[in-house]
Specification:
The structure holds 2 protein chains of 2 kinds.
Chain A lengths: L6 E3 L8 E7 L3 H9 L7 E7 L6 E5 L2 E5 L1 H4 L2 E5 L8
Antiparallel strand pairs in A: 1-6, 2-3, 2-6, 3-4, 4-5
Chain B lengths: L4 H12 L8 E7 L5 H9 L3 E5 L6 E9 L2 E7 L11 H12 L4 E7 L3 H14 L3 E6 L1 H6 L6 H8 L3 E3 L8 H13 L13 H14 L9 H10 L2 H11 L6 H6 L1
Helix pairs in contact in B: 8-9
């Protein structure tokens, strides 16, 4: 039986957990910037820690630590990893 | 672009405030931030450097000269960027230099420990100029991380020479200089890999190609021009008008939009 995969906003990811990028709902220059940093559909991303007031959040992407504002991370869709999927 | 040495000298001076000596070969040095670009720059040019600012910008600009095989080279250090699609002043400077200075050779320095993210910039540069050398720097760091890079395969995939270096240890710099000479003289032909976009984008590019020919008097690759117009890249349009005097109300722009 195939389980349906839940799609969540990246902003909801708890520190320590890993997921895979599904799509970017961002547009314009910010979208381009995020893509240039290597955050593209299919990329694994790990939430590392939140800033003191809960924003911004540090993510590990392709071995680089990148901070994103939660309003921007809210527009990036991710899905949790399937069992046995490799981690970053 | 085939310019005489004198035309090129005047153009570099007028557009970028850079003094190219008579017969000197102009090289652009591009790369992501923190890939050891400045280490390469220093290793190649030693103390023969001149620093200042880019015209009208508060971004540092460094140029350095070196001699190799009785030829003189001027190396221009571009700001470190992840992209050339211009959201920051640094990206705009790097892009404008590659598009409007027509360097004889462009070196793209990549971090060998993080190729995936670095290749993005290389592929963008490939769309602007074919005369590119990829410099795979920080090979010592990659080795420490037990990363093996198949340089000949990478070279084949990218279609340009790839030189592995560890600039801090001075490894690979002689080979880099040899490749610079070969690419500048045309004795080594390059054929950089071009990204094929989705069929929708490719169709739109095809429609635009016949229209954009007149836009830059064939001084820029038509494909790159068409892609930027499709992007609606305002800052590139501004550069087109300031460097080439293109009318921002040009009719083809409306077709693109």
């Amino acid at each position: 039986m195939k389980k349906t995969q839940r799609i969540d906003p990246l902003a909801d990811l708890a520190p320590g957990s890993v997921c895979r990028i599904v799509s970017l709902e961002l547009s314009g220059l910010l979208r381009r910037r995020i893509l240039d940093l290597g955050i593209v559909p299919g990329t694994l991303i790990r939430c590392i820690r939140r800033g003191p007031s809960g924003d911004p959040t540090a993510y590990l992407v392709r071995e680089t630590l990148i901070a994103l504002r939660s309003e921007d991370a809210a527009q990036i869709s991710v899905r949790t990893l399937l069992n046995g999927e490799e981690c970053v | 672009m085939n310019l005489t040495a004198e035309q090129k000298r005047v153009l570099w001076e007028d557009r970028f405030g850079i003094s190219l000596a008579d017969g000197q070969i102009g090289i652009a040095l591009a790369g992501n931030p923190n890939v050891g670009k400045s280490t390469i720059f220093n290793a190649l040019t030693g103390l023969h450097q001149h620093t200042g600012n880019w015209p009208g910008k508060t971004v540092d600009n460094a140029q350095g000269a070196f001699l190799y095989e009785q030829k003189s080279f001027l190396l221009v250090d571009l700001p470190g960027t992840y992209s050339l699609l211009a959201h920051t002043v640094e990206e705009q400077i790097a892009r404008d230099f590659l598009c409007f200075a027509y360097p004889d050779v462009t070196i793209v320095v990549l971090d060998a420990t993080c190729l995936e993210r670095n290749l993005n910039l290389a592929l963008q540069v490939f769309e602007i100029t074919p005369k590119v050398i990829v410099c795979l720097n920080l090979m010592d760091e990659a080795e420490k991380k037990r990363l093996m890079i198949d340089v000949p395969s990478l070279e084949r995939e990218l279609g340009v020479p790839v030189v592995a270096t560890a600039a801090r240890q001075g490894v690979g710099l002689t080979e880099l200089k040899q490749k610079i000479v070969q690419v500048a003289s045309g004795s080594l032909q390059t054929n950089p890999r071009q990204i094929v976009y989705s069929s929708e984008v490719e169709k739109a590019v095809k429609q635009l190609l016949p229209l954009v020919g007149s836009l830059a008097n064939n001084t820029l690759p038509l494909r790159w021009l068409a892609l930027r117009l499709l992007d609606g890249d305002r800052s590139f349009l501004e550069s087109l008008s300031s460097y080439l005097g293109v009318d921002p109300c040009w009719e083809g722009l409306r077709c693109a939009q």
